[in-house]
Amino acid sequence: MKHETAPASHLRAVGGKATALRFFTICARNFLPSARLLCESLRQAHPDADFTVYLCDRDMGYDPVPLGMRIEPLEALGIPALERMIRSYNITELCTAIKPYCFLREFAQAQGDDPTPHVIYLDPDIEVFSPLTEVAEALDAGALAVLTPHVLHPAERAEFEDDHFLRFGAYNLGFIALRNTPEVAEVMRWWGRRLVDQCIIDLPRGIFVDQKWMDLLPAFLDDVHVLRHPGYNIAYWNLHERRIHGPEGALQCNGQPLRFVHYSGIILEDTDQLSRHSRVFHVSNSFGYGPLVQRYRARLTAPGNRRLRNLPYAFFWNGARGKNAHSPGAEADTAWSRPETFLLARQAFTMEQYLGFLSAEASEIENRRATEAALVPRGEEGRNGFHFSAYCAVCGGRHSMVTSFLYSGETYPDGTPVPNWREHVACASCGLPNRVRASMHLFLQEFEPRSDSRIYITEQKTRLFGWLSGRFPNLTGSEYFGNRVPKGGLFEGVRNENFEDLSFQSESFEFLLSFDVLEHVPHPERAFAEAFRVLEPGGRLMFSVPAHLDRHPSTIRAELAPDGRIVHNLPAEYHGNPVDPEGGALCFRYFGWDLMDMLREAGFPRPFLFHYWSREFGYFGPGQALFVAEKPR
């Protein structure tokens, strides 16, 4: 049986020793099927070339292994203004704004292998048909950059006339090839600085995302090669001057080898129209382009790609301005109307990845600690607590955050206590502390639960339960009363549940929420197994726990012996307990990264954690983390 994404037979591989080339593309999660088709076509044309996908989205919701591509997260680029860019840009603007940073990273990545490789960017909706020989030859001959113009001849009577390209740019930035030199790197840094705020669609001002800026490239670099080969970058805007012909495996355009086709604006649901941007060209009158679109569309819409194409965009499709002239559609994210509430949370799947983030962001983390310290009053002022203003994503507005020094475990160099930021920064309006507000923030932002979602939370006598119950009528909560009542029974109107042995039927819930409870469970591996059982396929477990994120083994403070005795390995530590305010709840452990091993053993294949910090929302302190595990569908 032929694999649904197998490379097409029309590709022909490059012969002889290939030039050192590094390719990359940029896309959101729903464009990963396109990126995979691009990757497969590239590997046929350039078998030895390096290829990377930079994901302008959240690194979650898919299994990267079957895709067979190197996928780098957005955070790997180290963009200082990334959070601001995410909040302001729409999907088209953000995906193009990060391009210079990708080039700089590709230049840096190549230093160990070849100090001067050629780096080529291609849009994900491109298919390569034969080796990009002319590009490699131009760069080998000394060109610092290679660009492809939108059109090769005056377009006075075409659907897209000359003045169109005066507004959108002379060169199409679905392709650009650069040589790794100090001069080019300096221009990339300039381009990156401009795109922090000016990668916008504002045609009256003469700006079209990253593309229009490259009209200046020939002025900034001596050797810019404008590639006027008709076999490059064939798309809806130049079909009036291109003719594709020839047999499979040797396709040509205007008598020259066909190098790559750009399926910009492809309409997957339409069988005749080729692009949402063109009303003139259709399958029947596109001079050989239409059959390629049909073949590409069939592969892109194969059943194995449907789930990926339906993954929602994690950021803002229409951006802060509420519009996206280049990529309009009903895919709009409900969060568009309130992008000011977006929390940029990093993801980490392994301890190495987490520690790598901390190392790469060392200067930023130092600035965070300085920001926190500046809020803390010195001397006797504020010794009993202090306030600062922040946005509460639970209440939906700015409020005073009440902060105390209760359970402060360290001091600043001048002797001032460091607040326990995780537990004791509470919103004066809703009363919820830092970690709880952040957990709800990410729950609503990342998973968008419906009002009728079936949710179980391992608490009931709390403010959080009261807040959730007013918004989700199918919410179920519980506390643990031991043997005072049977499991699933009520004690003074509150449900009794043992997380290690839940009373619910299998596949009862879409979401299971638990916040700082699992450290009080003697056998958390049993609790994870129960969570897996009661979640429906595709259901998610989200929880917080005290954790040491710089080590793998958990710190076992206490254990439950087979005879029921409590064995203390460290001095007993008790946390607040709404069921027993005076006695509290014994802490059995502080978790390490072996927590992920427990989740995988319970059946969750790819658990991860969010780690976050935000001055705007008052989410302070080191090591803020929220764990997530999804049951396979």
From TrEMBL:
GO molecular-function terms, A-Z: methyltransferase activity
Entry keyword set: Methyltransferase, Transferase
UniProt domain Methyltransferase type: residue ranges: 494-543
Pfam families (alphabetical): Methyltransf_11
SUPFAM superfamilies: Nucleotide-diphospho-sugar transferases (SSF53448), S-adenosyl-L-methionine-dependent methyltransferases (SSF53335)
Name of the molecule in the record: Methyltransferase domain-containing protein
The UniProt record lists the keyword Methyltransferase: yes
Gene3D superfamilies noted in UniProt: Spore Coat Polysaccharide Biosynthesis Protein SpsA, Chain A, Vaccinia Virus protein VP39
GO biological process: methylation
